[in-house]
Amino acid sequence: MGFLDAMDISASGMSAERIRLDVAAENIANVNTTRTASGGPYRRKEVALESYGDSSFSSVLRKTAAGKMKGESGKAGVRVAAIVTDKRETKRVYNPDHPDAGEDGYVEMPNVDTVKETVDGMSATRSYEANVTALNAIKTMMQKALEIGT
Questions:
Q1: Least confident piece of the model among 28-32, 37-41, 113-117
Q2: Nearest alpha carbon to residue 41 among 115, 102, 109
Q3: CB 90: neighbour CB atoms within 10 A?
Q4: What contacts 128, CB < 8 A, 6 or more positions away?
Q5: Where are the domains of the chain?
Q6: What's the first-to-final CA gap in the chain, in angstroms?
C-alpha cells in the first residue's frame, strides 16, 4: 500500500462522512413534515456504510512478505452501501387544529429524534476531521520522503 492508496482511503472516508452529515441535516430539516409525495409523514433516513477492498494490516503484511505488493494498487476504503428508510413507528400528537389531523384530532409526525440526529451529525463531523488529519499526516510523510531524497 503506497501513499496514494492511503490518500484514497482517507478521501473515501471523507466522502462517506459528508453523506452521513447530509442525511442527518435532511432528517432535522424534515422533523415537522407531515406530508410527503408518497403520502404520510416523513420517515427518518439512515446511511449504511460498507468497507471495500482488503486493506487490513495482516493482509498487507502477508502480501508484502510474499513480495506481491510491489506496484499493486489495491483499492480500499469505505463507501455508502445504501440510504435506508427507518421503519419505526411514527409519533402521534394531539393537535386537532393541524390541517393533517385525523377524525380523532391526532397528527402523525415523523419518527425523527432531533437529539439523535444532532449526535449523528457531530459524529460524522468528527469522523470527517479524523480523515482530514490522516490525509494531512500522509501529505507530511510524502514531503519528508521527498526531502530525504534531496
A1: 37-41
A2: 109
A3: 18
A4: 13, 14, 17, 18, 21
A5: 3-149
A6: 24
SS3 90: coil
pLDDT digits (tens, 9 = 90+) for 23-35: 999 999 999 999 9
The DSSP bridge partners found for residue 48 are 82
Q: What are phi and psi of 51, to 5 degrees?
A: -90, 155
Amino acid at site 13: G
pTM above 0.85, yes or no: no
The rounded distance, in Å, linking the Cα atoms of 126 and 118 is: 12
Residue 13 · residue 77 · CB < 8 Å: yes
Size (the chain), residues = 150
Neighbours of 124 (CB within 10 A): 21
CA 66 to chain centre: 35
Query: Nearest Cα to 15, choosing from 47, 43, 44?
Result: 47
Q: Helix, strand or coil for residue 53?
A: coil
Burial class of residue 67 (count of CB atoms within 10 Å of its CB; 0-12, 13-18, 19+): exposed
